[in-house]
Fold these 4 entries.
Entry 1:
Amino acid sequence: MDSLFRDIRYGVRSLFKRPGFAAIAVIILALGIGATTTIFSVVDALLLRALPYPEAGRLVILREVGAQGNQMALTGPDFEDIKTSSQSFSTLAISSVGFPLVVTGGNEASRSRIAFASRRFFEVIGVQPLLGRVFLPEEEKYGGPVAVILSYGYWQKALGGRADFNAARLNVDGVNCVVVGIMPPGFDYPADTEIWITTNTDPPSTSRATHNLPVIGRLRAGVTIEQARAELSGIGKRLRERYGEQMDAVDFALLPLQDFLTRNVRQGLWLLLGSGSLLLLMACANYTNLLLAQFTVRQREFTVRSALGASRWRLARQLIIENALVTLPAAGLGALLASFGVRLVLALGADMLPHVNAIAVDGRVLAFSCGLAVLIAVALGLLPALRLSQQDLQAGLKEGRGQSADATKRRLRSALVAVQIALTLILFAGAGLLGRSFLKVMQIDPGFKTESTIAMTLSLPSTITPEQDEQLRQFYSHLLERSAHLPGVIAVGGINVLPLADRGAGGNSPLVLPSFLINDDPAQKGYAIYRVASSGYFAAMSIPLLRGRIFDETDTTKSSHVAVISQSLARKYWPNEDPIGQRIQFGNMDQDKHLLHVVGVVGDVRDVTLEREAQPTVYAFSLQRPQWWQVSRLAIVVRAQDSPQSLIPALRETVHDLRADVPTSFKTLDQVFSSSLNGRRFSLVIFGIFAITALLLAVAGIYGVMSYVVTQRTHEIGIRMALGARAADVLKLVVRNGMGPVLLGVTVGLAGAVGLTRLMASFLFGVMPTDALTLATVSVGLILVALVACCIPARRATKVDPLIALRYE
């Protein structure tokens, strides 16, 4: 221990003698460790660490698989058959994702996230209420009492944390509910849920084609997921044999809950972690170059120590300690940078990443950071020590102090520069491809104009009686009419789902469109997105009318139900005839069997994502289909003459005057359009930061190596200039030596980029992974930057005074 402490004290003194080296080394390593730690904290929280539930590895999600390979929620009859027949699950339950509904009865009306849950949901998840109880069997039966369980945060916000919460009566979507329990703080499944409500608000479905039951299960102890999948497939086969065409699923799917929650981000996170690791390798290469320069100066010191009897292990320990005195502070600074990096990740990806509350720089992440520091210290300490133990001591003692011209060291330094250039090119190629994809997506015409337009989102409780339907119809009519007469308003309209607002469906995920009947003929089936809109919606969104007319005052509740269709639908189903006057029946969406008479054709709209082609769309008239109009997220779109934000107070007051219990939220269409790009923006920003950091490290590495080479060759340069070499000759010599590793690195980097960027194919749009323009631009740009980094030391070399250089010895 005494010798260990002496080595530590010696290492500290050695670093204090070289403060510039120590500071630069800490900063370089901190950048690499910080980048890797940032992404690791996300990967660890979402992919590596078990979910915060008891025996979370046994939690699974059950899905049905359609004929097109798409996965769907279960139907009611299929769920009951699985519960009866399966032996693989200890418990099965229903748990829908959270969605916003109007809630009254608390401190104020709110639009809160509600999740339907069956009685055994809390048993499946393994978490019991902090206060109160779970649902009772009678609360699962249709027509029985409706009960709710509140999240801890909602209990504090809406009920003020009152102890007699079970005396509270909340109204959720028009249904009176009794509060029976409070969940513990931090419980967040499904994500962001504020209220869990019983599943008895609607009658049980008897259709095997109505996929509306999200099911979660817990595997029995000892049952593997492969065994459960095999059993489910057998059950599905027997059900298809029994029910035939009544059942539209072809198989059942079983996914671990963690895999299901991270299915849309898993590949991207591993890709980002790999990019962060490349940046860490660059930092290590840069630090190794610094160590080589220092080792050349200190080689005589270590040779003398070896000659005096220092063992290989003693030299290695000294080097490891000195490295650790650099890498451990770098790990601490890297962890600090990672804490800021995690905030950036959460700001960019909060609406894409699941259970973001678990993402933090905690003990596991700090241990990872320190582990990287120790690994780097050991690896870069052992290698020089091994080489020292193999050298000829007499030859080493004869070398002049600091004058070693070891060709091996020069080749190693050049190789490290080439590695840095290659890794930088790979990162910049990835960032360039993502950037070009982003620009191409930005250039897509969504089919509507976003400028000077704002969307007001609101929702009312579901209607049950015809009287409530009529009240709702009057409310919407008055709201649209009064909003249209506000100063500065050009057009007002409403739709049940705003285009690009629902980012749950990824651009690459299977899209299953609901079906409709042409002329009410079961033999003529079509597929389209179903929307319900008001007459002013198309003017408010600047969606062009191509043929026929829009809804008008002649379309009443007593007249024929009408529809406007998109150009792509007309082209697909009536390519050689006039679509005006055609009839379709879309009753499977809202149970309204009225035929829809096509009265107009409008331009296509990118409804789901910008990347996906515009889908065939049917727009029904809101005043004729009020039930479907109000159960989804109603958006009132207002086009203004000037700034749309100036209309927010007047719009909010208009809603309050009509109904004081309706909460509202506002977002401009520019914000909606921008939010639809969040996924691409997230990857681009992270990749871009990594690439720029890599470039700075590469430039620093090239500059440092060239500066060191110029210093080492000052005597040689002086002789050349004394013998008549011109400044231009010296400049060419130094630049040629510096650019050799750069060109090698670019060549290797291009080969690596061609291979590795193929992993990014699913993240690109309109650009091939081997896009020649991107690779060429990145390569030329990197060469030019490297050339500048070489020229600065080279110009300094041309100013060497031969007389001074010849006295260098």
Entry 2:
Amino acid sequence: MNLFLALLSAVAFFAAPARAADKPPVDAGPYVPSPTSVVADMLKLADVGSKDFVIDLGSGDGRIVLTAAKLFGARGLGVDINEKLVKDANESAKLQGISDRATFTIQDLFKTDISKATVLTMYLLPNTVNMLKDKLLAELRPGTRILSHDYPLSGWIPERYVQMDLEDKVIISGVTTTLIYLYVVPAKADGNWTARLPAALSREPVRLTLKQQITRVAGAARIGGRDVLLEEARLRGERFTFKLALGGKTYAFAGTVKGDAIEGTVEGGSLQSAAWSASLAK
């Protein structure tokens, strides 16, 4: 993840046809670490803290998880296919007195259980990054932060990204440019919802139709026999916000998506933090 060339072996193995899945991984390139400053910047961007569990896919010498544990107080797991790098990373954790919070294992990153992560980090080639998209959505909980070094997740809208120029990168990629992308795993909001709004907006249940494409959400509310488009709809983890223009006034909705239910408040006009809710239609 923070080790670009070391991960070429992982890419060569995981991108191979299914019939080769049982073959041992091939070491296809030398190990070249990324600058330590990138590691700290990545973790700061995701606001990593003592309550976080960091999983690093392609952990190399372990510096991401080691830094998360030592400097940010987090716990974490690093996985890599290079036996020596994994061994060295575990030794480093022992020497630094953080082996109770930072562990490393030899593992296929496509088979790794990532469900415990509150933060997931990776420095992988573009093809591998995007091969992981379905796994990330299926296994990570809404609100989990994902950090990808240099390569974006296609179809995802990053919460933030940072660009830096580092001379150390020239030997890795031939350029100084370094990009760090921060994503937040969205809740599943797609579908038809039955919403109950304050009486001032609707005395009858409202049909809320949402269309979701990963982090993008659009939709409409059926109110008073007409469809009103949602404006500025945004889904960040479990937090869902949007605006509705009704009767010449604009109302701001905020809610938390928890499985088949949304609970939140709406403000606008004479309303101040009035409750609204919705349930997913079966």
Entry 3:
Amino acid sequence: MDVLDPREASGVGTPVRGGITFREAHLAMEMISDSQKMLALDLVEINPILDVQNQTAILGVGLVSSALGKRIL
């Protein structure tokens, strides 16, 4: 989650200004799903204290869903 731009995911411990966008993150997860080569997925660093209105946690769930085959784009 740290790779995402803080405007997309504020609830991380190490925000990276200029990180990837919502669309880029979902596209990457969909490409991983399409490859059918994913063996494991580790979603790390969602800090509920820093999160605003649970936005980062909701995005994390969406990214996992995309990695498992759900299409949003």
Entry 4:
Amino acid sequence: MVQAIELKEAVSYSPGSVVSKTILDKKAGTLTLFAFDQGQGLSEHTAPFDAVVQILDGEAQLIIGGKDVYAKAGSLVVMPANVPHAVRAEKKFKMLLIMIRGE
């Protein structure tokens, strides 16, 4: 069934947790929603593909290649392939992660 998804409402915060919800998982890439409670995050890692983060609610601190990038609701951030990155929630926030597996 084809329908519109209200991204901000499609994933909920959980105290002391990071919640993820996969919206689409295809050979070409994935769409995953995340809700980070304050103080939560993802440790530094790399991905073999470009990724795009769209902040849906709140504010995020991304560390990309050792540089701090602050983004708020409505912002879009590109994380290049093979560049170390991490995510921190100084305040709670929600994001959509778009992973592109192609060249």
